């Protein structure tokens, strides 16, 4: 961490995306995800496209410079659709991407929009057959009477071609908007969660799913909370958690019953009455929940803070980190401009010692758990020279503004970092601004 | 308990903003976002609680002041032997006086309870109509603006009828019960005067208060009223969380404000 006496510094590595400030809505990045080895980095955008970057494996020198990520594959995952029955347009925006663990030469990922989940196969083709007996080189069929000899087609090298093909389409199972998908550790099933229900799927079966959580009240007038995120435990295939708009997290065990409406654990922290405001319910709504890699903790993100929970203690989080507490006095303005509804994500590093989340003004924050250190960094084109070390930023909440500090009123709330991802093994992070993807790496000293 | 630093003006603007957000969400691409609308409804509820609480407190303060003044005046004016005659006279007055006349006579005071307007009013009406709308079961009326057909209707205890000026006698009589209930709701300490006199004074007070309509600044609350529409079902589950407010306000009054919480689209 770039803190006082810290031994790690972050430097700029790459930036992907258009340079101009005029952002096309379709190019807005909506999800970022590393695969299980970190070799591939997938992004989804509002236009329904998925772009996959691959880390170059050949160039490992000089040692302080890790390999770059280059575009590997681009494909249109979802198209806009229209529900004629409800007269509703279904957005093509990719809400989540989740990689499957690799089983063979091909890569598989799940991508979802508001209503439909798709399983994509990404495979490489670097050879092509040549020497067909019945077809010409251009594909036209030969006149059988003209064939005088028989040859065995051979495979010859060709330029690498990466193909993405939809292998499964999981549709018509969600009435409300899908907010999460999570692949189970059994590598056979996955869950999808919308505002009121969670469904369990088998990766091979598309025409049915099991409903495992349903919080829809009999009378919708009695609705008081919705599901905001859900995730399977990284090791226990029977366990999953889902967070709610009321700031609670429920852990469920699928062995207990077919319908997991009764939770096995309820994680909830009592509200501090001195902080009560018009917007208490909004800022306590959880926008993301992530298990730690070791499966002992989980992290939740609400509007102003990140909380780490020990799965064995339901009464309160073991750690709480304030992301941008200076915004507490600005909630009214943030409500007016809709920023208060922004859903920030969070992520763990490979060994669960550091957590990261985004903020406004293209700032992102890292919290080092053991040393109780935190740092604010910025993703901007101005700090985009190769291997340029990122300077810690500081927001001045009030009083006299020091040099290099930014006052709260100067923050650009249109520049928000909602999606971040951390390489599963190395200190490489991917940070998505509105339409750019920044890749930073630690500087090995 | 919401931070008391939030003033009524903030609550009012929050209500406007929230209703506008709900309205705009109907035309957003991708359909209505249930999560966002639920959160907006919470803000709406919180703002409404503060707004109502402040208004009730204001009414209570004004009532206390007026009661004191009225008692003082009546002590000076009344001959105790003419007590019954005075009451009979007031009764006749109530029967025969036109709503409009009362409006003319009434003092233009400020503390018009805005919840009347929000509950019952869609747009500023002629004084006669205002009075009848306000007095007649004010807490059970809901004015509905249908955004699809742009038709305004008033739903009264489940029955739709047109806003109109009712018979003055009915106005006065029906005013008694709510007025009396209001007194008790606020823990209003009745004076040592005859109970019938309390009715009289409360009726007078009610007429005075309700007649200040035309002098109000309708801008904010009429905008609020204009934005109210019943989309369908609402999140009345939120109504159950009003423990602190119900200590002060009557449940009846709150139930009549269901329009506030029903401005949500449900699926």
Description:
The complex is a heterodimer of chains A (445) and B (267). Chain A is mostly beta strands. Chain A has helices at 280-284, 331-336; strands spanning 10-16, 29-34, 40-45, 49-55, 69-76, 81-83, 88-90, 96-99, 107-112, 117-130, 154-170, 180-183, 189-193, 197-202, 205-214, 227-232, 239-244, 249-253, 265-267, 288-291, 297-301, 305-310, 319-322, 346-348, 354-358, 363-368, 373-378, 394-396, 405-407, 419-422, 428-432, 437-442. In chain A, strands 1-32-31-30 form a 4-stranded antiparallel sheet, with no helix packed on it. In chain A, strands 2-3-4-5 form a 4-stranded antiparallel sheet, with no helix packed on it. Chain A has a 4-stranded antiparallel sheet with strand order 8-9-10-11, with no helix packed on it. In chain A, a hairpin with a 4-residue loop joins strand 9 and strand 10. The longest helix of chain A has 6 residues, at 331-336. The radius of gyration of chain A is 24 Å and the shape is globular. Mean pLDDT of chain A is 92; it is low at 1-6. Chain B is mostly helical. Chain B contains 12 helices and 3 strands. In chain B, strand 1 and strand 2 (152-156) form a beta hairpin. Chain B is 58% helix and 5% strand. The chains are: A mainly beta (445), B mainly alpha (267). Chain A binds chain B through residues 86, 88-91, 93, 114, 175-177, 179, 195-196, 217, 219-226, 228, 245, 273, 276-282, 285, 332, 335-336, 338, 341, and chain B through 1-3, 6, 10-11, 14, 17, 21, 29-31, 33-36, 38-39, 42-43, 46-47, 50, 233-238, 266-267.
How would you summarize the topology of this molecule?
The complex is a heterodimer of chains A (445) and B (267).
Chain A: E1 10-16, E2 29-34, E3 40-45, E4 49-55, E5 69-76, E6 81-83, E7 88-90, E8 96-99, E9 107-112, E10 117-130, E11 154-170, E12 180-183, E13 189-193, E14 197-202, E15 205-214, E16 227-232, E17 239-244, E18 249-253, E19 265-267, H1 280-284, E20 288-291, E21 297-301, E22 305-310, E23 319-322, H2 331-336, E24 346-348, E25 354-358, E26 363-368, E27 373-378, E28 394-396, E29 405-407, E30 419-422, E31 428-432, E32 437-442
Parallel strand pairs in A: 28-29
Antiparallel strand pairs in A: 1-32, 2-3, 3-4, 4-5, 6-7, 8-9, 9-10, 10-11, 12-13, 13-14, 14-15, 16-17, 17-18, 18-19, 20-21, 21-22, 22-23, 24-25, 25-26, 26-27, 30-31, 31-32
Chain B: H1 8-25, H2 34-77, H3 83-96, H4 99-105, H5 114-120, H6 127-135, E1 141-145, E2 152-156, E3 159-161, H7 168-185, H8 195-210, H9 219-227, H10 243-246, H11 251-255, H12 258-261
Antiparallel strand pairs in B: 1-2, 2-3
């Amino acid at each position: 961490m770039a803190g006082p006496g810290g031994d790690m510094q972050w430097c700029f590595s790459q930036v992907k995306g258009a340079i101009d400030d005029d952002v096309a809505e379709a190019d807005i990045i909506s999800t970022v995800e590393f695969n299980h080895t970190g070799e591939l980095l997938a992004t989804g955008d509002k236009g329904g496209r998925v772009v996959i970057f691959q880390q170059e494996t050949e160039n490992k020198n000089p040692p302080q410079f890790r390999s770059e990520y280059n575009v590997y594959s681009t494909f249109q995952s979802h198209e806009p659709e229209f529900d004629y029955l409800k007269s509703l347009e279904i957005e093509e925006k990719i809400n989540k991407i989740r990689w499957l663990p690799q089983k063979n030469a091909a890569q598989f990922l799940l991508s979802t929009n508001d209503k439909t989940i798709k399983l994509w196969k990404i495979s490489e083709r670097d050879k092509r057959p040549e020497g067909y007996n019945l077809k010409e080189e251009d594909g036209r069929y030969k006149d059988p009477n003209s064939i005088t000899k028989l040859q065995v087609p051979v495979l010859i090298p060709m330029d690498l071609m990466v193909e993405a093909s939809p292998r499964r389409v999981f549709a018509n199972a969600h009435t409300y908007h899908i907010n999460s998908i999570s692949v189970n550790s059994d590598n056979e099933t996955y869950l999808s969660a919308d505002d009121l229900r969670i469904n369990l799927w088998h990766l091979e079966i598309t025409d049915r799913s099991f409903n495992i959580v349903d919080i829809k009240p009999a009378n919708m007038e009695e609705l008081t909370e919705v599901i905001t995120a859900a995730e399977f435990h990284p090791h226990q295939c029977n366990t999953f958690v889902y967070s709610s708009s009321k700031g609670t997290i429920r852990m469920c065990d699928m062995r207990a019953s077919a319908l997991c409406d009764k939770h096995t654990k309820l994680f909830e922290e009592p509200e501090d009455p001195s902080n009560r405001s018009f917007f208490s319910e909004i800022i306590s709504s959880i926008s993301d929940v992530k298990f730690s890699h070791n499966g002992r903790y989980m992290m939740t993100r609400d509007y102003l803070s990140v909380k780490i929970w020990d799965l064995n203690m339901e009464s309160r989080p073991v750690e709480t980190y304030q992301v941008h507490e200076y915004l507490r006095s600005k909630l009214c303005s943030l409500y007016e401009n809709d920023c208060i509804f922004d859903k920030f994500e969070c992520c763990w590093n490979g060994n669960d010692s550091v957590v990261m989340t985004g903020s406004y003004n293209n700032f992102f924050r890292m919290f080092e758990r053991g040393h109780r250190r935190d740092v604010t960094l910025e993703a901007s084109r101005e700090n985009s020279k190769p291997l340029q070390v990122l300077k810690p930023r500081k927001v001045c909440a009030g009083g006299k503004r020091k040099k290099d500090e930014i006052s709260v009123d100067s923050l650009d709330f249109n520049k928000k970092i909602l999606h971040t991802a951390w390489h599963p093994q190395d200190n490489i992070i991917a940070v998505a601004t509105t339409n750019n993807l920044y890749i930073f790496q630690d500087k090995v000293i | 308990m919401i931070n008391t630093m939030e003033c009524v003006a903030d609550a009012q603007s929050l209500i406007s903003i929230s209703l506008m957000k709900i309205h705009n969400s109907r035309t957003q691409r991708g359909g209505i976002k249930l999560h966002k609308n639920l959160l907006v409804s919470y803000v709406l509820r919180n703002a409404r609680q503060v707004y109502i609480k402040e208004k009730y407190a204001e009414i209570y303060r004004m009532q206390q002041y007026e009661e004191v003044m009225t008692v003082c005046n009546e002590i000076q004016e009344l001959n105790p032997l003419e007590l019954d005659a005075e009451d009979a006279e007031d009764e006749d007055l109530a029967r025969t006086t036109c709503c409009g006349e009362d409006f003319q006579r009434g003092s233009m005071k400020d503390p018009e309870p805005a919840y009347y307007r929000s509950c019952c009013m869609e747009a500023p009406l002629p004084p006669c109509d205002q009075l009848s709308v306000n007095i007649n079961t004010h807490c059970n009326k809901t004015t509905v603006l249908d955004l699809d057909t742009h038709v305004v209707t008033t739903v009264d205890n489940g029955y739709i009828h047109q806003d109109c000026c009712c018979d003055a006698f009915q106005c006065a009589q029906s005013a008694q019960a709510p007025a009396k209930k209001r007194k008790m709701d606020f823990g209003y300490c009745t004076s040592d005067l005859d109970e019938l006199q309390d009715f009289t004074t409360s009726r007078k007070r009610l007429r005075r208060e309700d007649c200040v309509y035309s002098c109000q600044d309708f801008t904010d609350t009429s905008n609020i009223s204009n934005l109210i529409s019943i989309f369908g079902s609402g999140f009345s589950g939120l109504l159950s969380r009003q423990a602190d407010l119900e200590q002060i306000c009557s449940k009846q009054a709150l139930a009549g404000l269901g329009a506030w919480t029903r401005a949500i689209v449900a699926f």
